[in-house]
Design brief:
Largest sheet: 4 strands, antiparallel
Organism: Streptomonospora alba
CATH superfamily of the largest domain: Butyryl-CoA Dehydrogenase, subunit A, domain 3
CATH topology of the largest domain: Butyryl-CoA Dehydrogenase, subunit A, domain 3
Number of domains: 3
GO molecular function, one term: fatty-acyl-CoA binding
Structural class: alpha+beta
Family: Belongs to the acyl-CoA dehydrogenase family.
GO biological process, one term: fatty acid beta-oxidation using acyl-CoA dehydrogenase
Cofactor: FAD
Length: about 400
């Protein structure tokens, strides 16, 4: 092979040249979200994490709305109708800054908006979706309860008929955006099975309490929802919702964003570590020259790029209408574990500096502890994959 035709050396930031497979539109979305994240989010996220807050969430929602990422994968009602890979790229770039910021967008678009879009009436869609897409209204998704996490079928929140109305009682826990939301999609057990309800948060009997003292996902608002005799008109129910499969299909949409988001977190840790290792000198040279450092970096490159391949393949399957929920389980199971390995190695290679907020690695590391748990724990996804390959369910 002549020197003229010899392939170029791999780009350390995109070793398998995955981004070269993007369409012009997808690349533009990647660049637009990345530039927004670098300009508006990255400078302040360390302080937000340290303070355990998300300042001006309504301003942030409007900024995300203007950017076009809220419900961007949905069609109509002010939504962009972007492809699955485009949405995944947006999640990747946001989580490269912080998991909490990607969660804000995921909960709004893939949980609250998706539920209304998939199961809502035309009146519900027209009332809420355009405002939510623009960031003028914030939504949350109430499924998890204090005693009902991986087993949502055991939920205690009840909705009962009272004439033509519905009355809801119960508690939801670990609800992102709950205490700043204008509308909550709440799932409750009824005599007809599990149903979804659109609950304006100014309804009497509805309260949201912010959860404090978190050690993970600190740049995010997490809440407890309390419903005491919340009376709703009959048209508050999501008419298309029926059974536990309805909220689980919403979770699947959110998990898809995590498949891509984990790649962003892993890439951020790897990139920070590569920069640190090539500039940090010990024993007369950069630590990047040590064999053990290079082995750790090689493992990180492998994990980042294999996770990226997984996300891209699942995204393309989704666009083809061929993505099964087990594909997404495999993506979340594998990509989050890969990101955790990268973050731990990054923390190690940064030495004592790795525990400070001057570098992003430990912030990502502790955030990924939450990412590994929400939208289905790694154990639940492992059992889903096991059932898919054996045909035998290990669930009770």
């Amino acid at each position: 092979m002549s020197e003229k035709n010899r392939p170029e050396a791999p780009d350390p930031q995109d070793f398998l040249a995955l981004d070269a497979t993007l369409s012009a539109e997808e690349a533009d979305i990647r660049d637009t979200v990345r530039a927004f994240a670098d300009r508006e989010l990255r400078p302040g996220v360390g302080d937000w994490f340290e303070e355990g807050t998300l300042p001006d969430p309504r301003g942030l929602a409007r900024a995300f709305g203007k950017l076009g990422v809220l419900g961007m994968h949905l069609e109509g009602y002010g939504c962009a109708g972007a492809g699955a890979v485009s949405y995944g790229l947006a999640c990747r770039e946001l989580e490269a800054v912080d998991s909490g910021l990607r969660s804000f967008v995921s909960v709004q678009g893939s949980l609250a908006m998706f539920a209304i879009h998939r199961f809502g009436s035309e009146e519900q869609k027209n009332t809420w979706l355009p405002r939510m897409a623009a960031g003028e209204a914030i939504g949350c998704f109430g499924l998890t309860e204090p005693d009902s996490g991986s087993d949502p079928g055991s939920m205690r929140t009840r909705a009962r008929r009272d004439g033509s109305d519905w009355v809801l009682d119960g508690t939801k826990m670990w609800i992102t955006n709950g205490s700043v939301a204008d509308v909550a999609v709440v799932w409750a057990a009824t005599d007809e099975g599990v149903r979804g309800f659109v609950v304006p948060t100014d309804t009497p009997g509805f309260a949201a309490n912010t959860v404090h003292r978190k050690l993970s996902l600190r740049a995010s608002i997490t809440s407890e929802l309390v419903l005491e005799g919340v009376r709703l008109s009959g048209d508050a129910v999501l008419p298309g919702s029926s059974g536990l499969g309805s909220p689980l299909s919403c979770l699947n949409e959110a998990r898809y964003g995590i498949v891509w988001g984990a790649v962003g977190a892993a890439r951020a840790c790897y990139t920070a570590t590569l920069d640190y290792a090539t500039t940090r000198e010990q024993f007369g040279g950069p630590i990047a020259g040590f064999q053990l450092t290079q082995r750790k970096l090689a493992d990180m490159v492998l994990d980042v790029n294999q996770a990226g391949l997984t996300a891209m393949r699942i995204g393309r399957l989704k666009e083809e209408g061929a993505c099964h929920r087990n594909h997404i389980s495999l993506g979340k199971f594998g990509n989050v574990a890969a990101a955790q390995r990268v973050a731990r190695a990054a923390r190690s290679l940064h030495g004592a500096n790795g525990i400070t907020l001057e570098y992003p690695v430990m912030r990502h590391m502790v955030n990924l502890e939450t990412v590994a748990t929400y939208e289905g724990t790694e154990e639940i996804h492992a059992l889903s994959i096991g059932q898919a390959v054996t045909g035998v369910s290990a669930f009770r």
